[in-house]
Design goal:
- This protein has a single domain, classed as Vanadium-containing Chloroperoxidase, domain 1 (Up-down Bundle).
- The termini are far apart.
- About 70% of the residues lie in helices and about 0% in strands.
- By secondary structure, the protein is mainly alpha-helical.
Length: about 190
């Protein structure tokens, strides 16, 4: 079933070659957009955005550790290494592709952003799903790699979202950081609100 689902998505690139540049861009370079979004959220200097970035970062660290454990339990090479006639559109070293690190990264932050933003955050889930599909489209991951990465990230995102914003130590540390930051970069107006 995993291979059949892979073929279903990957073969779309053979049939719809005009879409390949779009999926290559999403698979390879959307990580830059995510990094810029994290920086922009942080430097808005709005308390809720900063807590959201902290939660996304903590989620990513936890999910990445869980992903490494999952990779020790189950291992498979990329589809382009294991299967014939794969539409491989990007270069990638052969290693364990389970679970997908890209998917772990995107779902860690995107699920967190969605939890904080509510209905307005649906864009982030769509983005994470697009990145997951793009990794199959370009031939470097199986659907199970993507699904595992999404699941490994989503659970911790929910737990971190419930716990971290309530921790006094996080609030105090962020308050100290904000005072130091304000010394070097004074605010023209008080937009740092809880």
């Amino acid at each position: 079933m995993n291979e059949n689902m892979f073929r279903l998505v990957n073969d779309l690139g053979k049939e719809n070659t005009f879409l390949n540049p779009v999926f290559i861009f999403i698979a390879e370079y959307m990580v830059i957009f995510l990094a810029l979004a994290v920086l922009i959220f942080w430097f808005t200097r709005i308390y809720k955005n900063r807590i959201m970035v902290i939660c996304g970062s903590i989620t990513f660290v936890i999910a990445e550790l869980l992903g490494k454990i999952a990779g020790k339990i189950h291992s498979n090479h990329q589809p382009f290494e294991e299967l014939n006639n794969v539409n491989q559109l990007i270069e990638k070293a052969v290693d364990n592709s389970f679970p997908s690190d890209h998917t772990i990264l995107f779902f860690s932050f995107c699920v967190t952003f969605c939890l904080f933003k509510g209905a307005r955050g649906a864009f982030w889930i769509v983005l994470a799903l697009l990145v997951g599909v793009s990794r199959i489209w370009v031939g470097v991951h199986y659907p199970a790699d993507i699904l595992a990465g999404a699941m490994i990230s989503s659970g911790p995102a929910l737990i971190v979202f419930r716990i971290i914003p309530k921790l006094g130590s996080i609030q105090r540390t962020l308050g100290i950081y904000e005072k130091v930051e304000s010394f070097f970069l004074p605010l023209k107006k008080d937009n740092y609100q809880g």
